[in-house]
Amino acid sequence: MKKIEINNNTYELIKDYKNGFEIDSIIEKCKETDFFDIYDYILGDWAYGKLRLKGFFNQENPKCNNNNNYNKIDDYIKKYCAYECRYFIIKKK
User: CB under 8 Å to 74, separation ≥6 — which residues?
Assistant: First the structure.
């Protein structure tokens, strides 16, 4: 899979639905903050031409809860993302 460097962290692109992954957009979104550095996974979805990001943890991570559990990412996509929107998931290495 494709490897990506963001804020000195290495990620692997594990899902790219409808070509939702745009490297320049995610780097631009993350360059001014380290907010997403703590997460094991980042979901990026497109709504109204804007990239939205949401972080998720592995279930084994002590910071994991019902709202950020990677095992529930499909439910999150169905509930909170626009129907059939473009999206991607990257995993921290």
Answer: none
> pTM to 2 decimals?
0.93
Distance CA(17)–CA(87), nearest Å, equals 5
Residue 10 has, within 13 A of its CA and on its CB side, a CA count of: 4
Torsions phi, psi of 13, nearest 5?
Answer: -75, 115
Dihedral angle, C-alpha 1, 81, 24, 4, nearest 10 °: -30
Taken in order of first residue, the domains within the chain and their CATH numbers are 3-92 (3.50.4.20)
Reported as a single tens digit per residue, the pLDDT across 15-59 is 999 999 999 999 899 888 899 999 999 999 999 999 999 999 999
Contact 56, 41 (CB under 8 A): yes
